Amino acid sequence: MDPLSTALKIAASGLAAQSDRLRVVSENLANAQSTGNTPGADPYRRKTITFAAEVDRATGGTMVDVMKIDRDNSDFPVEFMPGHEAADANGYVKVPNVNALIEMADMTEANRSYEANLQVVKQARDLISMTIDLMRQQS
After folding, report:
1. Cβ atoms within 10 A of the Cβ of 125, count?
2. Residue ranges of the Flagellar basal-body/hook protein C-terminal domain (predicted)?
3. Distance between the two ends of the chain, CA-based, in angstroms?
4. How is 23-89 classified by DSSP, letter by letter?
5. Residue 130, SS3 per DSSP
């Protein structure tokens, strides 16, 4: 395979991985206030995403792939909300282990990585177009 096609494939794998990462971050932010419905029930548990590098046999390029989407097993914070339906006998409610600041930082990083991969796709596409134009001029 030619180097430009390899670059396109690598960038496409990065786009897909960062898209999945953005989806996970969005789910975490959307559920940052999702508590249980009964006393002592567990709230929403933050999701995490893990990437892996894989060598593509056809191109020899190293692609990025989502290895797994898992749950963050850190403890749930508790807040004093005596009137809440999920409050225990002491008035405490388990809240999701989602930190909005961390999620926003992850979202910013994923967005920038997505944009960088998109620029690679645009540059490779432009180079392919220029190559085709050069070939047309020579014939």
Report:
1. 13
2. 90-133
3. 24
4. HHHHHHHHTTT---SSTT------EEEEEEEEE-TTT-PEEEEEEEEEE--SPPPEEE-TTSTT--T
5. helix
pTM score over 0.85: yes
Gyration radius from the chain CA atoms: 22
Token pair 């085709």 is found at: 132
Alpha carbons 136 and 98: distance in angstroms, whole number: 56
> How much is the pLDDT for 2?
85
Rounded Cα distance between 56 and 10, Å, is 9
User: What are the structure tokens assigned to 88, written together?
Assistant: 């225990």
CA dihedral 10, 16, 18, 23 (to 10 degrees): 180
Using pLDDT thresholds of 50, 70 and 90, give the confidence band for residue 40: confident
